[in-house]
Amino acid sequence: MARETAVALRLASVWRALVLAIAAPLVLALLIVLWRTPFPLSEGVGLIEDVARNTPSHFLAADTAYYRPLFHITLWTMWHRAGSVEGALHTIKLLHIIPVALVVILFVWIVRPRDAIAAGAATLALAVLVGAPAFRDNLEIPLSYTTAGMPIGLLVWIILEREHRWWHGLVIVGLLAIAVGFKEQGLVLVPVVIAAWLTGAPGVRRGTALAVALLAVGYVAFRLLNRGAGPLFEQDVGFGFSRLSPEQTMARFGSFPLAIFAYSGLATIANVLFSEPTAGVFEVAAAVVRGRPDPIGLLNLISSLGMTVLIAWWVSTQKSLRVLPVSREAFVVPDGRVAIALVVSLAACGAMSFDYSRDRLGGMAIVFYALAAFHAIRALGIRVASAPTPRFRVAVAGLLLLAGAWQIRALNTLEGARETAFKNRREWITGVADRRVEFTDRPVYLQIMNRLEPQGVAPDAPQPTRYRRTAARLIRGR
Amino acid sequence: MTPDAASSKRLLLAVALTGPAVVAAIVIIATEGYRVIQPDSILFTEPPAVSFADALMHREVEVAYAFVHDGVNPNAPLAVQDAGLTGGGSVDVSPLMIAVASRNRNAVMMLLSNGVDVDLPVNQPAACVARELGEGDLETMIVRRGRASGARPQCASPTDGGGPPLLRYRVVTVPSSVPR
Question: Which of A50, A227, A451, B91 is the most buried (most CB within 10 A)?
Fold first, then answer.
């Protein structure tokens, strides 16, 4: 018996290594691009100016719409403790790059493929993770707010699904506090932990569920009491086929903001499920209406639709879910809990993006979407393996197309990262003059800008690959 | 179904799921490998321009910036000959004048960020060219960089009445040594 277990474990390691080996070129290329990406002039310099001018305690004051105390204090420490500007920039980049690598490794760790079909499902699910807009939109250096939260979400999930140990509660609360400290999107993990406890996850006890619930209530109360007097709408709001400025949104929805809040929340959820709308704007639909459909947009929409339908089918086959909420014991199947985690994380991401929708705001849910995708693909694989040959052929062709589409999307993420690096460099080449005039009253900003300029204009920054014809349209969207 | 048939089906399914990922991995390895071996390939970088003037008129800003990065003086007049900009004749004008006349906004911003002195005589007409072309934001951008700090220039009468702006606003006497 022990020998059989050892063989099974060794086999699992082999499949896991195989999946990682197949994903390695994409992931390594992505990490290298991120490492070589110049810091952006807009956002990047302003952020560093903030940490250069202020003390850490300044970032604890909650009278701001963008409260990320731990992120700013981490950045402050990196900037002030590094021996050189170059050293500081490298450390800040690592703060972004390490979580990206961790998300991939932890994901493969969790899915733990044990046979060929599971390994195939894992490679496709990994492409779903990397190719999703919610992942891609969080790759912008140095804005590692949600990028830090995504591996934390997976770490929490690992703990929730393991046999209980006395330290689980402390670690879960600690990880949750770190995720929330980087960005409020970390609160998405609160309903995930509570739902896991309600559905009988082995690694969590009532005390932990209660602690995270209290943490969330306390945090929200703290934010509401200290929010200051900011405008109702902080950023542009996507609505239908267009974007509205905060003033336009106020004029149109100010008297009854709940409608636009609900729209923005649902837009973020729909973006995770269907890759449309983007930031609240139905761009793919608009292009089709104009008679100029965007190939990459259509590919994203159709492949997301296919994957979401597959996940919905898989959820419908989870017998344990049908008894909700009669019995906690019915939820001992971990797969079923993934479905619950997906639903609650989506709902939480939607609720937390009520003010405006952006692709990146679905980041905390996308890890659970990819986990659900793994289970759904594997379940379909097992089902069709025993199906009659004609149905089997149709299913194989369908899965091949779906896998191909998602791999193109993963390549698109890599090219998107290159494009961002290219744009950052262009911004440095062209945008310094205006800022020297505009920010004459901000000497610290100008000083940091001058110190960062050499890395911004360095000629070895990543450039998009100049694919030709169809490949260019599919991979680069042009 | 025999065990062999079931096993073949499972293998085929695994290949269908994994195959595209393997192809993507091969594409990345091949592309990145080629990038290391031939970084100057047209697949990875835009080919260099034949001249700084050509880059300012027709190419992406990175190509023009490469000249400045390599030490070309962004204030020194360049000989330019172009059917649209100079009516086919050759004329010596500053890079800023060429960029403005070409309506190359990125190139104008790049030059302003990289050592162009808009108060030099060779550059002074640039704001007037921008105004004549209806490029109000380019004019504002140039004017803001001047010592007059935002005062709109008095655009002198063009050198002659008609023809392309580069010909009409060119500075006839060019200083022999232009500071960078």
Answer: B91
